[in-house]
Amino acid sequence: MAVKIRLKRLGKIRAPYYRVVVADSRTKRDGRVIEEIGKYHPTEEPSLIDIVSDRAQYWLSVGAQPTEQVRALLKVTGDWQKFKGEPGAEGTLRTKDVAAASGAAEAAVAAVEADAEKLKAKASAAKAEQAEAAAEPAADEAAESDEA
User: Fold this and answer.
1) Do residues 10 and 17 touch, judged by C-beta distance below 8 A?
2) 18 and 10 in contact (C-beta within 8 Å)?
3) Which residues pair with 48 in a beta bridge?
4) What is the pLDDT of residue 97?
5) What is the DSSP string of 60-79?
6) Under the phi-then-psi rule, with left for phi > 0, alpha for psi from -120 to 50, and beta for the rest, what region is 14?
């Protein structure tokens, strides 16, 4: 049986995403698969490429042939170089700057919390003023009744 590592298309029209699958070469593009070893979302920036390296290495070692597109993805992740024993096994995969994005999100959350604290302080000050204003006439009435 000739085994291929190829892409299985999912998603909507003009919004594709793919799964990297191991399948018999005679099956349909989106047909029955032997194993799913990764996913590829080309529309994200940068593209999401998530391939389980040890499973890809296993299937390559037992003779599965990757398609041109999958070979390109394997080169980006470094799995193809690792399989061939070539230098550059770390790959050229770009990742989102998660640390900067999470730092910006934390700063935004802190700003919102500070604004919420200011609003709470204003509300409590307004309540205190209303309570004092209501207490003053009652205190005046009590003082007048004590004098009489």
Assistant:
1) yes
2) yes
3) 41
4) 63
5) HHTTPEEPHHHHHHHHHHTH
6) left
Please provide residue 35's backbone torsions phi and psi, each rounded to the nearest 5 degrees. -155, 145
Q: 22 near 64, Cβ under 8 Å?
A: yes
Give pLDDT tens digits for 90-99.
767 777 765 5
CB 74 within 8 A of CB 82: no
Query: What's the CA gap between 49 and 38, in Å, rounded?
Result: 8
Tokens describing residue 148: 């009489």
Query: How many beta carbons lie within 10 A of that of residue 5, not counting itself?
Result: 26
C-alpha closest to that of 71 among 60, 80, 83: 80
C-alpha angle 75-31-21 in degrees, rounded to nearest 5: 25
The rounded average pLDDT for each run of 10 residues, N- to C-terminus, in the chain (148 residues) is 91 93 90 92 89 93 94 91 83 65 75 88 87 74 64
Place of tokens 């006439």: 137
Element (H, E) at 146: helix 98-147
